[in-house]
Amino acid sequence: MTTTGPAGPAPRRRRGRPGYDQTAILRAAVELFNRKGYDATSVGDLAKELGLTKPAIYHHVTSKEQLLGQALDDALDELTAVVTEASREGAGGAGNAGGTAYGRLRDVVRRSVEVLVAHQPSVTLLLRVRGNSEVELAALERRRWLDDRLAALVADAVAEGALRDDVPPALVSRLLFGMVNSLVEWYRPDGAYDTAAVAGAITAIAFDGLARHEC
Amino acid sequence: MTTTGPAGPAPRRRRGRPGYDQTAILRAAVELFNRKGYDATSVGDLAKELGLTKPAIYHHVTSKEQLLGQALDDALDELTAVVTEASREGAGGAGNAGGTAYGRLRDVVRRSVEVLVAHQPSVTLLLRVRGNSEVELAALERRRWLDDRLAALVADAVAEGALRDDVPPALVSRLLFGMVNSLVEWYRPDGAYDTAAVAGAITAIAFDGLARHEC
DNA sequence: GTCTATAGACCGATAGAC
DNA sequence: GTCTATCGGTCTATAGAC
Q: Which CATH class is domain B64-210?
């Protein structure tokens, strides 16, 4: 992405004042958007956080909305990759989950948790989008596509006989990924649980249940 | 609440222009806050939605933030009642759930779903609060208190031996009520599922699991 | 009880100096 | 690459007429 030159071994600082690159500004912006909300965050707030002034921000970025769009694209690209891979395996390819819809669903849950943890800031932003602009509406459309694919994956697992059929698959999908997505509200990478522990807990609860089985 | 007079059988319109009372304005405000976000909603938007002008709003309401605070209090009062009742039953009273922590936990989940459905607009608003003002910080504090009581209830059920103990109770609590709370993002009262169906699906998934048991 | 009109503050974004 | 200064617009909230 950042082509600094043909012979530059490391992307050293270009020239002039120390400064920030677009990536560092984006990271700080997303953190602020999540902490205060997108609309409640002004470009002035962002400038203060970075220790520079408002016009200096606009030297690196064309608009506040562009920062939002880049974060949403990051989250959507990652989640789309997870869902697409699972759907491809389902089309006949030899996946690592044995080829059953049930195995693919468990895989998608686990990989979704990994994406949520690794890209928590941008995914958090994505889950809070309301559709107030073209950028947000486009993100909501991509999200709806993801939700549809996930619902289809659940429906496949039910049709396969692996999941209980006394709850509508569409409802199962909403609740299952509602639980997964709720991660962004409280998970902290430096907290008590690592990614595998959370993914394991979610799959244990969702697929095997909380209650002890007397069998 | 609205004492219009000593002999008024129904709260007829007081006098003068048709007008709105504070309750109708609050309902419209919360609906807008949820659709566009609190910060993205201006008092002018609210006035347009109600078919009057901005200053007319301020005749009934002292500030935009007061509307937010009233909605948050509504949600918090309802949720506090659910949690308090369950904790009281646990203190020795004869609850309708057999007196076990497991039964009380199932009850709290079901009643939480009922509150989320019956008070969806205000609960939705509560779940999106970021802490940007004194009103929001106070709401977050009350929310934290609720979360602590729910976590204690889960811990009781684990200690009782009714729930699996290979997942930390605090993690179980977060995920379980994360699933419950995710309702507000998609549930519609006129949709395909009624309250009992959703509550049943959540308890079935969370306690018994999605997978068919081969026993 | 609703209106017109406006105050005072802050917003996103830009111009131009250095 | 960052700055000071500012434009045009929108915001919450208020004053005062009817």
A: mainly alpha
